[in-house]
Amino acid sequence: MLAPFALALTTLPAHAAPAAQSVPGAMTLYLEVSLNGMARGLHPFRLQAGALSASRAVLRELSFSLPDNGAEWLPLRDLPGLVADYDAARQQLSLTAPLAMLQLPTATVGQAAVTAQPLSTSTGLLLNYDLYGTQGRGGSASLSAFGELRAFRGASVLSTTWLMQRTHDTQGWKDQSVRMDSTWSMAFPDRMLTLRVGDTLTGAVPWSRATRIGGIQLSRDFGLQPYRQTAPLPSFIGSATMPSDVELFIDGIRQYSGQVPAGPFQLNALPRINSTGTAQVVVTDALGRAATLSFSLFDSSRLLAPGLSDWTVDLGVVRRNYGLRSFDYGKQPVLTGTWRRGLSDSFTVEAHGEVTRGLALAGAGGVWQLGAAGTLSAALAGSRHDADTPGGSRSGTQTSLGYLWRQERLSVGLNGSRTQGDYRDVATAYGAAPAKGSASASVGYDMGSLGNVSVSYLYLRPVGQNASRYASVNWFRSIGRTTSVSVGMNQNLDKRSDRGIFVGLSWSWDAQTSVSAGVQRSGDQGTVGTVSAQHSPLGDGGWGWRATARTGGGTTGGQAEINYLGPYGRVQAGVSEMGGGRASRYAYAGASGALVLMGGGVLAARRIDDAFAVVDTDGVAGVPVKLENRPVGQTNASGLLLVVPVNAYQNNKLAIDPMDLPADVRIERAESLITPAGRSGARGHFGITPVRAAHVALTDAQGQPLPLGSRVQVNGQEGGGAVVGYDGWVYLDTLDVRNTLAVRTPDGAVCRAQFDWRRPEGGGLQKERLTCGR
């Protein structure tokens, strides 16, 4: 027993031993300590009359909470609630202490640790197109084309959109073309910033209005770091006496499973919660004892995590007559700013301002999370502007209030705003002023097997007009897995005759085919009945169709369409007569898709709204490609494949199977991790290099296969050489047109052989049988 003590004394401070030895009959022991199931290393203790004591310094190092005064050495048996198990044979001490006696750090678990790799930058062009044409009676016809052209390089994107229309009537053909938006944008993912120059929408909060401008915008963009959690996570605080397993269940579904050390812990719910419900945390210790903690969840979609800010600054001129004129901008510069910041887990402050010649606006508000009681939001804004008469000015204010509460079955939403005085914003100078008053209220309740019912109310009072008030009641119920029925009614509270009632029935044959029927009655159209059926193609593509019949309201008509979704886009064609008269009868056809110029080729695909990838296999055709282990296609004759969609600013794993490649190629990697920028493309390159290769069977002068494990050097190349396998076969892939093989057998004998490499007709791998001579 003395040897371990001598070893321990060389590795621990020596001052503890003399203090212990000064007590008659005491012995200093250096013991391996575990506290509540956690190993805490080697520490000195004093053994006297069969009782163990520890110094205050050691106990504090072990995380015990002790008063500052008192004796320097404390007998372990005198500490209330402490259980000490001393194993003299193994020189181990197991301590089990109540958590109230300890000062353990709070362990945080359940946080996402995924980070995106650096951007996969590429250069290319993309064209999205949407074509549509109609042909009616009497020579009426129309053609329209919507296009988007993008040029990108890394995180920089230059894009423009336009709309072209051509119509024909009794006056002949008329053409119209209008530019929609032209914008250059640059993303800075490390700083979560996006710079836009050109046409854009100003930043806004729920109680302000966005304005379309031409100018410059700099904004915080959380989408550049999609793995970052921006909203406060519901946190679950608990404690474990021993190292334990912890599981989180939300509405009965397990969301997290992991381990926590002894002591307090904080479990952050994953994934992000945007609803209300019930959560249970189950803690199971090493002895199999389980404890369950229950918590309530709440909506946090408008909240920011503490210390996190979101902001936007815009400078430009207002865009007018959007969609009608290509270059119609105001003359007065406009400056707007929006700012939001999370001050705590339950409160986020908001601010918004606008300035232009003759007008200034400023407002502030906040969003409060009231725990299980719901979410409350409020804001106050004021404006001052030059009056229409010279030398005067006018002002006004706007107050906004909102409340949202959701339970497992019941949800309540209230929103309202009201302006006082002559309240205006920048958008007023080029359109209507904010409404004098608006309000909405909704209540929804899940009645279980009886269905879901909702009641809503809407109030709107535009400037200079009478107020409008509407109320609606809706009921919905699912019958089995394939059928649902819905009933609804809306009523104009200011005009009794303005009432609408709707009854609908929907039935699904399978995941693609469904049939629905409905009857609607309103004051102006009477009773209208509609029956429709449709077959939608799956995400991988295929044929689809849609048919609708309608009667009532003085008219009878219908519509029939057939469509096809393929890898290169969508096409559709149909006929329609949904109104009365000959003018409502027409045939139509359309097509949509995208063309990409990247990687040295032009590739076609469905419409591309965000990021994509181009797989390059160095000209090797027919290579199967997988995205996140899911097959997405094969490379074309040029060794290229367009993969749509992929996640922008996130890690996307592309992979190929080397077993699907020809035997005469060498591959650098079988997987490629790409992180494309938004609305851009990224190149997935696997480094496939064609080589001269052959499969050779080597025999000796007697025709016997060379021994297993013989080494083959090709044309005097350095290295260990290729290894001969069973029956003398060896694979060689570093060949020239003329080749000399030097073979060394396991017993040290050397022989040589020669052959010429040639590419077999029809592809494949050259096979040769050679005699290896001295």
From TrEMBL:
Molecular function per GO: fimbrial usher porin activity
Keyword presence, Kinase: no
Keyword Signal carried by entry: yes
Family matches, as Gene3D superfamilies: 2.60.40.2070, 2.60.40.3110, Outer membrane usher protein FimD, plug domain
One of the GO biological process terms: pilus assembly
PANTHER family: OUTER MEMBRANE USHER PROTEIN, SLR0019 PROTEIN
Keywords for this protein: Signal
One GO CC term on file: cell outer membrane
Pfam short name (any one): PapC_C
Position of the signal peptide: 1-16
Taxonomic lineage from the root: Bacteria, Pseudomonadati, Pseudomonadota, Betaproteobacteria, Burkholderiales
TM regions (residue ranges): none
Organism (species): Variovorax boronicumulans
Domain PapC-like C-terminal: residue ranges: 697-756
Domain of life of the organism encoding this protein: Bacteria
Protein name: Outer membrane usher protein
Listed InterPro entries: Fimb_usher, FimD_plug_dom, PapC-like_C, PapC-like_C_sf
